[in-house]
Amino acid sequence: MLTLEAVSYRYAGARRAALRDVDLELRDGEVLGIVGASEAGKTTLALVASGLAPRAIGGTLRGVVRIDGRDVAAAPMHEMAAQVAIGFQNPATQLSGVTETVFEEVAFGPMNLAVPRNEVIGRTWDALASLRIEPLAERHPARLSGGQQQLVAIAGLLALRPRHLVLDEPTAQLDPAGTDLVAEALSHLSARGASICVTEQKTDLLAGLATRVAVIDAGAIAFSGPADEVLADPRLADLGVAAPSAVRLYRVADAAGLSPVARDRLTAALAEELDVR
Ligand SMILES: Nc1ncnc2c1ncn2[C@@H]1O[C@H](COP(=O)(O)OP(=O)(O)OP(=O)(O)O)[C@@H](O)[C@H]1O
Ligand SMILES: [Mg+2]
User: Fold this and answer.
1) Which of 38, 42, 57, when mutated, tests ligand 1's pocket best, judged by the most ligand atoms within 8 Å of its CB?
2) pLDDT tens string 70-121
3) Residues 134-180: pLDDT tens digits?
4) Which CATH number, 3.40.50.300, 3.40.50.2300, 3.20.20.140, 3.30.930.10, labels domain 2-233?
5) Displacement of CA 91 from its chain's centroid (Å)
6) Residue having the nearest C-alpha atom to atom 9 of ligand 1
């Protein structure tokens, strides 16, 4: 479990805090979604939860970050990194830049954690298979499309078998098929007990994946709760977040004056047809 207690964070030289008084609990085996408008503080939250802020990027943190109840303020970055893996929106920043093949790239993380060689190989094939990118194994990571790089970066994180995983807009570069693969891989990881925090603008991804969702606005948590409730909350739009397609569909059917039975049939049929969650 990863918890933030009354956490505020200010970037070095910034006039105001980018996170204000954030309380958040990321429980074992759950997927917590973080949504919010542009500049709301999603990336900052990911940096603080993973320990990169302030350790690697400076700035000032107030409040307490705990892993399994332990205050990690004094823990150095390498110790945080062993507990919490982080994935960024732009896969180019995530790839090591020192490997010649996708296979080596995905194996790079667990190799550095001194995982035994046979296990590294097993984990690497597993991670590639879970995102259906085994055919890319021999390719050069730098010569892939943005979407392929994003899947490779996520495979590298899966191969770490992290207990806590923080992902900042992991599907930004992916098409719907790639997005579905990531959702499936993440739900497998959480089913094995990992706790996953995903920031996303794509609420469709979270609708099928997240257990709970927190809405961040101007650096503070505006509200949070069970994913179904938060994603259908009319306040989302005011905070710059588009509701999932299924919720929008339901509202359109309602506004068009369909009876509740017809509306439910239509939304169910369309969900089936369009694969809308
Ligand atoms: N390195 C930095 N130095 C100073 N201020 C920063 C820095 N990075 C971000 N900020 C500010 O912190 C606030 C939160 O930014 P953040 O990047 O966390 O938002 P976000 O929700 O991830 O936005 P987006 O949807 O555009 O990715 C913004 O006001 C932003 O201008
Ligand atoms: Mg961001």
Assistant:
1) 42
2) 999 999 998 998 899 999 988 888 899 999 999 999 999 999 888 999 999 9
3) 999 999 999 999 999 999 999 999 999 999 999 999 998 898 888 98
4) 3.40.50.300
5) 13
6) 44
